[in-house]
Design goal:
Layout: H1 5-21, H2 32-43, E1 49-53, E2 59-65, E3 75-80, E4 100-101, E5 104-106, H3 114-130, E6 138-143, H4 154-160, H5 162-165, E7 169-172, E8 179-181, E9 184-193, E10 195-204, E11 208-209, H6 218-231, H7 240-249, H8 257-260, E12 267-275, E13 281-282, E14 285-294, H9 300-311, E15 316-323, E16 326-327, H10 333-345, E17 350-356, H11 362-365, E18 371-374, H12 386-389, E19 396-398, H13 399-416
Helix pairs in contact: 1-3, 10-13
The protein binds zinc ion.
């Protein structure tokens, strides 16, 4: 039976609200509560699901609606159920109450990314209720641990249960929200993301008593290098895709501004400093954790060679963790559908391919050969920019913008799987 579009909106809002109220702050994650909620909501409509735990409470849920043509590769609707922690004192409203105010639903995860868990859930159950058969399998995966490196979520599934999620196409975060550049309104669709190379850099120095100052301390030497790192931009390495994007947007390559500069080369940011254990002892060692990010075409070796050029031969590097960059061509049928549906639903705006400087689960799904896009459509007004909401205090989602996104998203997925929109919704 088809469901009315009004019902679909109400159900999506209800699911989002319920998910936000489940505190899945990572660490510790505790994503089991979200997986159980989704499993039960799917089961209410006769859809079976599989829950996989990499460790107690670190649960990911996967389900599938089978298509009628195995020649078409499955599409995976991906999301993560964990959220970044909150500092309650910085919030104007409780972070896990899903309050509605000022036209928004407030709470951690409303934008990143329980909104898409809710969209995927409603789309799957609506398809099932309508009895519509897609022309390819549709897989829904709502996974744990994206916000802390994906060891317990997408990475675990890709390495341990690839049969559950192997697909040709992935729609996941980040992308599909409105941004304003100059006089233009755009929807960046993520086709590429940077890799990361996290390094501990250590300097040795002579230990001694704090009453006897000297120049060659580990802290002094390390501090000088940290200052050098923060004041030395890494080389420009604009990929062919980024050159094309900037040319299209009319942004000069030699003066791209702070929004685009991180997409045009590797970056390195000091994030954790460690040294010393007593207030009158000069420590013999000092270290800093460096959060390195790499553009497509780069690897940990080339990144460390570039970093070595900045800091010189003395510090010791220790690789803590790394993941490669990922890039998918925008010249595909799915991207064309995304562009068409976004631009039709917001006349005058343009959908453009985009690289994000951060990392998502797409880099793991790409390993199984999928074409991965970040597409979580939400219409945002200029006064509520995405950057001010993402991982921020007072994370919230404009409700009308969420409904707009739900419609665009449903249209994209249904068209790609060969099911008319009005075969599912009325
Ligand atoms: Zn996210």
């Amino acid at each position: 039976m088809r469901i009315s579009w009004e019902t679909a909106k109400q159900e999506a809002f209800g699911a989002l609200s319920a998910l936000v109220k489940l505190d899945t702050s990572n660490p510790p994650g505790n994503e089991r509560i979200a997986a159980d909620y989704l499993a039960s909501a799917l089961a209410d409509h006769g859809i079976a699901s599989v829950i996989k735990e990499s460790a107690p409470t670190r649960a990911s849920i996967v389900t599938r609606i089978s298509g009628n043509n195995s020649a078409n590769a499955p599409i995976l609707l991906g999301s993560h159920t964990d959220v970044v922690p909150v500092e309650p004192s910085g919030w104007s409203r409780p972070a896990f109450d899903a309050e509605v105010a000022d036209g928004c639903i407030w709470g951690r995860g409303t934008l990143d990314m329980k909104s898409k868990c809710a969209m995927d859930l409603i789309l799957m159950t609506a398809l099932k209720r309508a009895g519509a058969v897609p022309n390819r399998d549709i897989i829904m995966a709502a996974v744990a641990d994206e916000e802390a490196g994906s060891e317990h979520g997408a990475k675990f599934l890709v390495e341990r249960h690839p049969e559950l999620i192997r697909s040709g196409w992935v729609l996941n975060e980040v992308g599909g929200f409105t941004i304003y550049i100059g006089n233009g309104r755009y929807y960046p669709i993520q086709i590429a993301e940077k890799g990361f190379v996290t390094i501990r850099m250590t300097m040795q120095g002579r230990p001694g008593h704090g009453s006897m100052p000297r120049r060659d301390t580990a802290i002094g030497k390390l501090s000088a290098l940290v200052a050098k790192i923060t004041s030395t931009p890494m080389s420009m390495r604009a990929t062919p895709f980024m050159r094309r994007l900037l040319a299209e947007l009319g942004v000069p390559l030699d003066n791209p501004g702070p929004l685009f500069r991180p997409m045009l080369g590797n970056t390195v940011t000091p994030t954790i400093l460690r040294a010393g254990y007593k207030d009158n002892v000069i420590p013999g060692e000092a270290s800093v954790v460096l959060d390195g990010r790499t553009v497509p075409g780069e690897d940990p070796e080339s990144f460390m060679a570039e970093l070595r050029g900045i800091v010189g031969p003395e510090p010791k590097f220790e690789l803590i963790k790394t993941a490669p960059p990922a890039e998918t061509s925008p010249d595909t049928e799915l991207f064309a559908i995304i562009r068409d549906r976004v631009e039709t639903n917001d006349p005058g705006a343009r959908a453009i391919p985009w690289m994000i400087p951060g990392a998502t689960d797409n880099k793991f799904y790409c390993r199984l050969g999928a074409n991965c896009y970040g597409f979580l459509p939400v219409k945002l007004d200029p006064h509520l920019p995405f950057g001010s909401l993402f991982h921020s205090n007072d994370e919230r989602l404009p409700i009308e913008g969420f409904y707009w996104g739900l419609k665009v998203y449903a249209e994209v997925v249904l068209r790609f799987v060969g099911v008319p929109f009005d075969a599912v919704f009325c």
